[in-house]
């Protein structure tokens, strides 16, 4: 990582060097390269915040009707009350309609609606208010309506968003301000209008910094939480979470999903003969070597002790067998005595094995791994009791 980018991460964002990963800068820019676990956790967080805020707005929006009725002339106050009631209904609907399901698309939809309701309210209220020249208390209350885009842009700061997402969500509020100026162009005072616009751009910039900083911390936390500290591959807990996500995808889209349960052979003897530290080193080296041989979309997890789980999304049984043949041909590395390190592997696939859920898929791969142990170790057992030869 370059000195300049490290300066940004450490000095500007306040993260420690170990908490920053390769490709994190790209992940702050756009959500395309986010790993599925980060995407799903972020989707949950975004939608929960959307629901929290729409709940809050559904209480606060109608309360202001009383102030309008006491301070603004009729029928303006009643027209604004009608608008407020419509907005309240929309907020209530938003609070109840969307349930977090880990899909980013749904979270974006929720955010778009949360921001669209006040933006429309702002435009329509502005149209109504532009027909009146209000002074005194009425003037002060009506001026309050012009603050809505500022509130919206500042509200962005509570969401962990990438820079591109920030821009997309800030744009409607900025456009609403421009449109309101266009609709009442003759009555508008240009310096005030452009001054307000400049202020909104500034607030949007500060919000973008707050959003991306939150996201950077979230990425660091997720990375720490999902990795196994010894080997650096995914932990058991994150393996379960990813299996849940991948299972939903396999069921919905019909895409294949292969799972390999890997148990190292005679690992205890490494510890017994060479010590626990040598055992740890062997596990670390194996994880690093395996990681290099796999595709970016493949997911290697440490299930526990000397057991690993390999998740192969969008991979059929024959394709998974090819992957394992390649891995076994290259070898799993060496034991401290120079002998080849071997493993017993159980392979199962979502559709071909007709499993009902991911625990069943895992149980099948685990059972096949035991079969491989019983049949003499250093082999792969997959569907139809097919045993891949020891020397692939
Ligand atoms: N060094 C080290 N050893 C570990 C770790 N986790 C588990 N082990 C050891 O891995 C060994 C697993 O032993 P067994 O379950 O008997 O399996 P095995 O010796 O590989 O024999 P088979 O699986 O039957 O081929 C135990 O001695 C554990 O203490 C770890 O993080 N580091």
UniProtKB/TrEMBL annotation:
<keyword id="KW-0548">Nucleotidyltransferase</keyword>
<feature type="transmembrane region" description="Helical">
    <location>
        <begin position="76"/>
        <end position="95"/>
    </location>
</feature>
<feature type="transmembrane region" description="Helical">
    <location>
        <begin position="135"/>
        <end position="159"/>
    </location>
</feature>
<feature type="transmembrane region" description="Helical">
    <location>
        <begin position="197"/>
        <end position="222"/>
    </location>
</feature>
<keyword id="KW-0808">Transferase</keyword>
<feature type="transmembrane region" description="Helical">
    <location>
        <begin position="50"/>
        <end position="70"/>
    </location>
</feature>
<dbReference type="InterPro" id="IPR043128">
    <property type="entry name" value="Rev_trsase/Diguanyl_cyclase"/>
</dbReference>
<dbReference type="InterPro" id="IPR050469">
    <property type="entry name" value="Diguanylate_Cyclase"/>
</dbReference>
<dbReference type="Pfam" id="PF00990">
    <property type="entry name" value="GGDEF"/>
</dbReference>
<feature type="domain" description="GGDEF">
    <location>
        <begin position="255"/>
        <end position="385"/>
    </location>
</feature>
<keyword id="KW-0812">Transmembrane</keyword>
<protein>
    <recommendedName>
        <fullName>diguanylate cyclase</fullName>
        <ecNumber>2.7.7.65</ecNumber>
    </recommendedName>
</protein>
<keyword id="KW-1133">Transmembrane helix</keyword>
<keyword id="KW-0472">Membrane</keyword>
<dbReference type="GO" id="GO:0052621">
    <property type="term" value="F:diguanylate cyclase activity"/>
</dbReference>
<feature type="transmembrane region" description="Helical">
    <location>
        <begin position="166"/>
        <end position="185"/>
    </location>
</feature>
<feature type="transmembrane region" description="Helical">
    <location>
        <begin position="107"/>
        <end position="129"/>
    </location>
</feature>
<dbReference type="InterPro" id="IPR000160">
    <property type="entry name" value="GGDEF_dom"/>
</dbReference>
<dbReference type="InterPro" id="IPR029787">
    <property type="entry name" value="Nucleotide_cyclase"/>
</dbReference>
């Amino acid at each position: 990582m370059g000195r300049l980018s490290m300066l940004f991460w450490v000095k500007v964002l306040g993260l420690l060097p170990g908490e920053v990963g390769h490709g994190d800068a790209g992940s702050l820019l756009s959500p395309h390269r986010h790993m599925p676990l980060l995407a799903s956790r972020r989707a949950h967080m975004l939608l929960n915040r959307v629901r929290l805020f729409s709940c809050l707005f559904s209480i606060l929006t109608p309360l202001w009707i009383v102030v309008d009725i006491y301070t603004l002339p009729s029928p303006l106050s009643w027209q604004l009350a009608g608008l407020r009631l419509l907005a309240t209904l929309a907020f209530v609907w938003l609070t109840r309609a969307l349930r977090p399901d880990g899909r980013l698309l749904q979270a974006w939809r929720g955010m778009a609606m949360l921001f669209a309701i006040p933006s429309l309210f702002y435009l329509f209220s502005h149209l109504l208010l532009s027909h009146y020249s209000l002074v005194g208390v009425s003037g002060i209350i009506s001026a309050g309506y012009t603050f809505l885009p500022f509130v919206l842009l500042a509200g962005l700061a509570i969401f962990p968003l990438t820079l591109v997402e920030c821009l997309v969500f800030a744009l409607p509020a900025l456009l609403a301000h421009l449109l309101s100026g266009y609709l009442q162009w003759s009555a508008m005072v240009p310096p005030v209008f452009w001054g307000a616009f400049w202020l909104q751009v500034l607030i949007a910039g500060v919000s973008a910094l707050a959003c991306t900083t939150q996201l950077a911390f979230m990425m660091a936390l997720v990375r720490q939480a999902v990795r196994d500290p010894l080997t650096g591959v995914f932990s058991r807990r994150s393996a379960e979470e990813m299996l849940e996500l991948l299972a939903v995808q396999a069921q919905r889209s019909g895409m294949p999903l292969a799972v390999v349960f890997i148990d190292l052979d005679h690992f205890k003897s490494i510890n017994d003969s060479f010590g626990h530290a040598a055992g740890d080193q062997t596990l670390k080296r194996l994880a690093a070597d395996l990681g290099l041989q796999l595709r970016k979309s493949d997911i290697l997890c440490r299930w526990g002790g000397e057991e690993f789980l390999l998740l192969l999304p969008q991979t059929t049984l024959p394709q998974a067998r090819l992957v394992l043949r390649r891995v076994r041909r290259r070898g799993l590395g060496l034991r401290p005595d120079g002998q080849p390190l071997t493993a017993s592997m159980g392979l199962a696939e979502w559709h071909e094995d007709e499993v009902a859920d991911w625990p069943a898929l895992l149980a099948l791969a685990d059972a096949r791994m035991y079969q491989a142990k019983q049949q003499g170790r250093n082999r792969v057992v997959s569907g139809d009791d097919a045993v891949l030869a020891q020397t692939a």
